Input
Amino acid sequence: MRSPIDVDWLDDLRLTLYPGNEICRSIFVTGHYEPNEFSWLNRVLKPGMTFVDVGANLGAYTLFAARHVSDSGCVIAIEPSSREMQALRKNVELNSLKNIYPLHVAVSDRAGEVELLIASVRHAGHNTLGAFGYDTELANREKVSIGRLDDVLESASVRRVDVIKMDIEGAELAALKGAAVTLERDHPTMLLELSDRALNPQNATSAEVLALLANHGYEMYGFDGASGCPVPLHRRDYFDSENIIAVPKGSTP
Output
């Protein structure tokens, strides 16, 4: 295939898929993308919730969450890449969803402007503020605005956050530092990627991410390789692109 195509997906949603893109290929061939994570979110998301998608990309998580939080809830979709923001907006329009608010910005522990490395379409999920963690082809460089997540949400008049998904290719530690008020005030449940190969070029480690979350009163879980169910996270020195769950102490993931 040489041109984008629209396909039916979960919960009567439709997606525009792009030939060659690894996320789109997974959805086109199998119908699934990160099935453990979506199965878990299916149980967690409720009508009226506010879901923040940090690193929304083409919008798979954004659309799924918007459907589950219903019109009484909302989704804040944060995406710094102009190319991916265009794909995200197209998928939002394709589904006529009115509870999604796309924000064209990156999040960190400070405000300013930085350079975003734009990966080839095939690896569009590898866009990064640091350096590519894999053997990824560079397609472009783009100047983007960055801000603290606390400030970005305040500017968007978001008063409470229930669930955060964060996958931003190594910028997670800085983003969490810039979300201190939100974490302390709301204790949102979180789904985030841990990848030392992406964190290290940005002077961060998975151990620092886990320590920060623990300091905010979180307990961490991973997805069991056999059942796909959340299990207490096995701590180790190196994480290689693994999604984890963080919940306030005493909560059930």
